[in-house]
Amino acid sequence: MSYDEPLRLPATAIPDGCRDWTAGQAGVWSAVLPPRWTFLRVRRSVAAGATTFALCAGGWAVLLGGLWPFLAAAFAVYVLWVLARPELVWAGAPALLLALAFQAPSQPWGVTALFVLVVGAAWAVVAVRLRARSAQYERALEAAEGVTAWLPDAEEPVRRGSFLRNLGLVVLALGVLTGATAGLWTSADDRRGAWAAAFFVAGLGATALASAWFGRHRAVQLRREPAPVLRVLVRDDVEGSTEVYAADDVRAIRPLFTVDLTSFDEDDEDDEDDGADEGDAEADGTETDDEELERLLEFVEADTPGPVREAVLFGVPYDGAEVRVLSADVDPAQPPLIEWSTGPVRPLSLSAGRRRIEREKAREAQSRQLEEQARELAGTQPPVAVRRWHAGWLDRLAAALLVAWGIWLCWSWFAEPGTAAWKLALVVILGVYGAVRVPVKLAWRITADRTGLWVTGLRGPQHVPWEDLRSVRRQRFELKLRWRGDNWAVAAPHWGWLERTRGLVHPYDALAAELSAMRTDPALRPTGESTAPERGRPLWPLTVVLALGWVVAVMALR
């Protein structure tokens, strides 16, 4: 669905004197952003991969170079801070360098020099990034021209950071437990590895707690006094984040920054009604909640950016800032939407913003083209009774990669006698997980007939009526089907750059386009009813065989 004009806020919802953040002012703000090499925007997957690599490097130094387990874990957590929580680097870098200096006499000079070089260089990069924040703050504050306003929900309790706080406490306790049981391992290497894991997990817990404190502190500061306000435009992207644009960028050409927002910040106090109306109120509330949830899921699963909406930004935007957003709702019949940030502001450079929009346009164009081709093909061919899709070569490749990884893991851990019990248990658990996933990758099947879809599963084919089907799409590595009350997904390799440069179409994209066309146009659906053999068989027998075979193989190798 497209909109020629942004969805407008009611005039009464806009604070008096609130200024537009124009493209010219926003351009001045973007000009003081730090360079790309300061890790201004890093994907979660990249941050996780870099942290894992750093932990492996530290573990190698522990086993071969005698590095303290604490230092190995601290180095991996430090890399995570550089990429995702730069505020902690100011205290972390000096402490880590001091610890490296203490252990330097017992370490090969090359190992110490490498760690010192990485820590020092990252410290300098973070300094450049944090220094740019003050310039961003000043430019945005100038654009507001001194106009401030109280937050619309300033009297509500602050819930920012609650989830991260609870998560951090749990992870920290897990790290302490791991350290308390480190002495139970038989070999010295296992004990050192357990201590490194304990310090790393505890470091992750401490990082979550620190992130919770930063978020809550900034959210509280935003409520204590009237906050600077700016009129902007916002749009929800396909990943669930919110893109912020200049107030005069009505075509959403240049996103300024992204931020994760949520509006679920109010207690449901209306359920405390008593008397004869309580049952009716509960039923009506449940129905309303279900409809609202369904509406939100429809929008999130649409795989296209949302409409451009007028909004008021409370708070000064800069890298890492907390903000509050009052925006027009996607449904014009609903009142303005009040959302608070669940993550920091992440600016987009000019080139990064353009690449982001180009990728979105290319994805939308490909989706429309594939769906139109599916419609044309169905219109030129005679109606079919049943349509079927099944696992292909990419799915078999995904299964082979999963099996190869399991075999490598088993061989590497059992190459020497005396394997620790925890390794044995972990290998068995991972093998059982693989036994559940491999049959789905190899034997999944989707069958379409006039009544709906039949999707294979462990317990057998599941029927999805056409009226219950909500969306079919490919998101990164996964093909996702969502219907009323449930969903299904299968994953296979995906190389976006190869598809873009070579003009290739991922099989999941073609399947999703064809099913989406059938979902929206009943005339394209099959005309007959499928039989039991066409729908596929339960996959649990193959899962049981694979799981038992894995357990027997592990016990034999031990």
UniProtKB/TrEMBL annotation:
Coiled coil: none annotated. Keywords: Membrane, Transmembrane, Transmembrane helix. This is PH domain-containing protein. Residues 264-291 are annotated as: Disordered. The chain crosses the membrane at residues 60-81, 88-105, 111-130, 167-188, 194-214, 397-414, 420-440, 539-557.
